[in-house]
C-alpha cells in the first residue's frame, strides 16, 4: 500500500533534472488537456446534459484514484479536470476540430516529455507502473499546494 508521499517520491526519482522538470511543468498539463479533449471529442449518447460526455465519465473514474491518495489531491484534480474540460468545450465552440487540436497537443507534448527523459537519463515512470500516468499531474499539484500552504494529507492506497 502506497501513500501519496510514496507515489510522489517514486515519481520524483526520475524527475530531478531541471530541464526535464520544466518540460514536465508544461507538458503534463498539456497532455491532460489533450487527453481529455480527445475523449471529449468522441460522440456520446447523453444528449443535452451539460458536462456529461465520455471525458467527464473517464475523469470521474480517475478521481477515484485521487480520492484514495488524499482528499486535497482529489479536490485539486477535480477542479483541474473541470477547468480543462471547460477549456476544451470553449475550443470546440470555435468550430475548430477539438480532436485535431487535442491530437496535435498530445503528440507534441509527449515528444517533449520523451526528450526530457532523454536529458534526464531515466525512463518515464509509467514504464514501471501505468498508474504513474495519474500520479504525474498530482505530483505537480503537490508542489503548488506546498507553495500556498495546503497540506497533502496521505492515506495508503493498494499498490
Number of structural units classed as domains: 1
As a percent range, the share of strand residues is: under 5%
Class per helix and strand makeup: mainly alpha
- The end-to-end distance, rounded to whole angstroms, is 5 Å
| Shape label | globular
Describe this structure in words.
This protein has 159 residues and is mainly alpha-helical. It has one domain (4-148). Helix content is 70%, strand content 0%. The chain contains six helices and no strands. It has helices at 4-12, 18-40, 54-69, 71-93, 98-120, 132-148. The longest helix has 23 residues, at 18-40. The chain is globular and about 45 Å long. It starts with a helix and ends in an 11-residue tail after the last helix. The model has no long low-confidence stretch (mean pLDDT 93).
Sum up the structure in keywords.
mainly alpha; 70% helix; single chain; 159 residues
Structure described in brief:
With 159 residues, the protein is mainly α. The chain has helices at residues 4-12, 18-40, 54-69, 71-93, 98-120, 132-148.
How are the elements arranged and paired?
Elements lengths: L3 H9 L5 H23 L13 H16 L1 H23 L4 H23 L11 H17 L11
Amino acid at each position: 500500500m502506497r501513500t501519496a508521499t510514496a507515489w510522489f517520491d517514486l515519481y520524483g526519482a526520475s524527475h530531478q533534472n531541471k530541464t526535464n522538470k520544466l518540460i514536465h511543468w508544461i507538458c503534463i498539463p498539456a497532455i491532460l488537456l489533450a487527453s481529455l479533449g480527445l475523449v471529449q471529442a468522441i460522440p456520446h449518447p447523453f444528449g443535452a446534459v451539460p458536462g456529461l460526455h465520455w471525458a467527464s465519465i473517464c475523469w470521474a473514474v480517475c478521481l477515484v484514484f485521487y480520492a484514495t491518495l488524499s482528499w486535497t489531491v482529489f479536490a485539486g484534480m477535480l477542479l483541474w479536470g473541470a477547468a480543462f474540460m471547460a477549456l476544451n468545450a470553449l475550443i470546440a465552440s470555435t468550430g475548430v476540430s477539438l480532436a485535431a487540436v487535442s491530437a496535435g497537443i498530445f503528440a507534441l507534448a509527449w515528444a517533449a516529455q520523451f526528450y526530457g527523459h532523454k536529458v534526464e537519463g531515466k525512463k518515464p515512470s509509467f514504464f514501471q507502473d501505468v498508474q504513474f500516468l495519474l500520479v504525474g499531474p498530482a505530483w505537480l499539484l503537490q508542489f503548488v499546494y506546498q507553495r500556498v500552504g495546503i497540506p497533502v494529507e496521505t492515506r495508503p492506497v493498494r499498490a
